[in-house]
Design brief:
- Helices cover 70% and strands 1% of the residues.
- The chain has 336 residues and is mainly α.
- The chain has one domain.
- It has a two-stranded antiparallel sheet with strand order 1-2.
- Helix 4 runs parallel beside helix 6 (151-171), helix 8 packs across helix 10 (270-294) and helix 10 packs antiparallel against helix 11.
- The longest helix has 28 residues, at 38-65.
- The protein is globular.
- The model is unreliable at 323-329 and 331-336 (pLDDT under 50).
């Protein structure tokens, strides 16, 4: 058992990190349930690992085996978002109530919560999939460009993922109409085809060293998260127009991406990647301070754990100097 764990720990770490960031750190799943209903929490988190962890593992396997980079990861992450929020829990089509709130009417068109759908697609593509994948790559650099799963592992992840999606779809109301279901499946298929076709270096930064200080990358991570939260929480009050809210949201994201492509560089990129990831996670530290006193008492245990992890990872990166910049986003040697 110990040998199996040591061999498969990077895959397990990814399966753990994805739901831990997307659900526990955000407060969507309450960590405090662990203390008064531990078995319920264990079952709930196991289901989240099948959903988030299974999706992250399958996306990583596809990107590595196809010898692709971050563009493929983000496109597949967007497809994952539609599977989860559209086909599994149906929030894309929910007209009101928790969790969509005001975004069930603000920006709703053709039976779809358009602004909510855009925000959650970005959230899952970046926070649920890309961020944990990046952290695992930084933590286990020797696995970069190498598959985590064999044939049986891929099938196990796929079966578990499909099973939990079907279970959620059967249990959660607001199921889409046949037309919306067909459109959702078509968009998912299009995103997967696009992910398979895009060049491996589509989102590779300019060659050379980073041209901005470390704190600028922290700020870039924070800006992306603040942009997402303001649109989702304060969009109706701030903008009054769903079109304007969507344009501001996408515009800030585009500016953030342009900064990363221009300033990150390809020489010794791991520290800049770390600081950008730290900025994204750091946003949740402030978020959780509010939740601690409003909705989720005890949630500060989660950012405390992540703060320790980031400190440990930073110390480790300080001792390591990459021998060469990773090719593509996932470091596949054949992707260059």
């Amino acid at each position: 058992m110990r040998v199996w764990l040591r061999r498969n720990w990077p895959a397990l770490a990814l399966a753990l990190l994805s739901p831990s960031i997307a659900e526990l750190l955000s407060g969507s799943t309450k960590i405090t349930v662990l203390f008064y209903a531990p078995w319920f929490f264990v079952l709930e988190f196991a289901g989240l690992m099948l959903l988030y962890g299974g999706g992250a593992l399958l996306i990583r396997e596809a990107a590595v085996r196809w010898q692709k980079g971050w563009a493929t990861v983000l496109l597949l992450g967007a497809a994952y978002a539609i599977v989860e929020e559209g086909l599994a829990v149906h929030t894309f089509f929910q007209a009101g109530g928790s969790p969509v709130g005001a975004l069930g009417s603000f920006g709703r068109f053709g039976g779809v919560n358009v602004l909510w759908a855009i925000g959650l697609t970005v959230y899952h593509a970046t926070i649920s999939i890309s961020l944990p994948l990046l952290l695992v790559e930084l933590t286990y650099p020797t696995t970069r460009g190498q598959p985590f799963l064999g044939r049986q592992g891929v099938w196990a992840a796929l079966i578990g993922f499909v099973a939990i999606v079907v279970l959620f779809a059967a249990a959660v109301p607001h199921f889409p109409s046949p037309l919306l279901l067909a459109v959702s499946l078509a968009v998912i298929a299009g995103l997967v085809l696009a992910a398979r076709s895009v060049p491996a270096d589509l989102l590779r930064p300019r060659p050379g060293r980073a041209s901005a200080p470390w704190w600028a990358f922290v700020a870039a991570g924070l800006v992306m998260m603040v942009d997402w939260s303001l649109t989702g929480l304060a969009g109706p009050a701030l903008f009054h127009s769903a079109w304007l809210a969507g344009l501001v949201f996408v515009g800030v994201l585009a500016a953030d991406l342009a900064f990363l492509l221009r300033c990150a560089g390809t020489v010794d990129p791991r520290l800049m990647q770390f600081w950008f990831a730290a900025g994204m996670i750091g946003f949740f530290f402030f978020w959780d301070v509010i939740l601690e006193f409003v909705l989720v008492p005890g949630i500060l245990l989660v950012p405390a754990g992540f703060a320790w992890y980031l400190y440990w990872l930073r110390q480790r990166l300080d001792r390591e100097v990459p021998s060469s910049p990773p090719a593509g986003a996932l470091g596949s040697a054949r992707a260059s």
